[in-house]
Amino acid sequence: MAERDGGESTLTVLLAGGVNLAIALMKLFAGLATGSAALLSEAAHSVADTFTEVLLLTALRRSGRPADRRHPFGYGKERYFWSLLAAVSIFASGAMFAFYEGFRTVFGPQQEQSNVLVGHVVLAVAFVLESVSWTQAVRQVLREARAEERTVRAYLRYSDDPTSKTVLFEDSAALVGLVIAFAGLGLHQLTGSSVWDGVASLAIGVLLAVVAYLLGRTNRGLLIGRQADPRLVRRIRDRLAAVPEVEQVVDLLTMLTGTDSVLLCARLDFDDALGAADLERACVRIDGELRAEFTDLDEIFLEPVPRNDPELRARVLARYGDILDG
């Protein structure tokens, strides 16, 4: 909740946004001064990143609104929607411009280079500034991965908060893009051929397209309705199986409805000896125990079902195979 209300995620996004805006202006000045396609592409890259931070700030603000009558499960998925738009922004305003500049330079007339020193200085300063933002993003990802007892790779794969992942990916791409632009600028100076500058611009475009695709794929899965962390699902299943009144966990469905917010639907075969009142009290008690133990659970639905119902059994097997029998 602290992150949703303006904690470390907001700090990470604000820092990245301020850095990207300053860098975009410097790169634009250097690109116009030198005539470098790679520098202009990097300016477009930083502009795209700045738009991305604005969208991420919107995601953080709007996703924290409480549930209401029109949206009884809350607004948590707004974070995924705005993060998806951020990925589109990176591709549309960053990658496409870089491709345009690259093709124009490679297949157009030779471009003369001027004020090369200005370009090198701006790239060096931009690298230092981007490193500050990147360090903050890495620090947050490492801290959250340790808190979840995961490797960084596993955290980035299973995390339900796209904010820190987006900033980390775009800052990493920014550092790589600066190195590519520096190489293109230097090779143009050494060889006298602007083709190298164009190739660097194309490489920056490919880099941005890859980052946009990875972030878009992540947010698409979260918007569609991804299952909760498999470790959490297994712990919930084991906890339900240990309840005295429950003879078998027949089906278990989870869906992420936002960051640190999970919807749970459990179909349980209860002891047939239980009366209606006993069953009601058991469901209320189980609900309370699950909420106390698993704080990510936002909504819980418990459905008493017979374990041998053939239609239900077929649906479970079609979805999971025999995993719930293990």
UniProtKB/TrEMBL annotation:
The chain crosses the membrane at residues 12-33, 80-100, 120-138, 199-216. Residues 14-223 form the Cation efflux protein transmembrane domain. It is found in: Membrane. Its main location: membrane. It is a multi-pass membrane protein. InterPro entries: Cation_efflux, Cation_efflux_CTD_sf, Cation_efflux_TM, Cation_efflux_TMD_sf, SLC30A9. This is Cation transporter. It comes from Solihabitans fulvus.
